[in-house]
Amino acid sequence: MGLWDKKHIAYALIICVLIAIPLLFESHAVSGLGSDDAGPAYMLAHGYHPWVTYIWTPPNSDIESGLFAMQACIGGAIMGYFLGIFHVQGRIRREELEKHQKVEEWTEEDI
Predict the structure, then answer these.
(1) Can you spell out the DSSP letters for 68-85?
(2) Which of 4, 27, 28, 41 has CA 20 to 30 A from 59's CA?
(3) Residue 63 CB-density burial (10 A; 0-12 exposed, 13-18 middle, 19+ buried)
């Protein structure tokens, strides 16, 4: 299989077409205000008051980014822990199954 097989060229063309279609037919995608700006504008016009206030706000964006990174790290560690547990449990089950199958083969041969 070479780099320029027909399959690879077809995949590249399909990807290019999928990227180009929205760009060709959506001319006002970047211009104007979208629906994301409608919510804050409505709230400011009608005197919105928040229900709750923050207990603590970080003094700058660097601390906020650091807290977010720490939260992501803790979440990744928890996910890694449980994925490791599931991996080890599967390996133990496979080893027990292979051990059980070997015992059955050994007993059948001896009889």
Answers:
(1) HHHHHHHHHHHHHHHHHH
(2) 41
(3) exposed
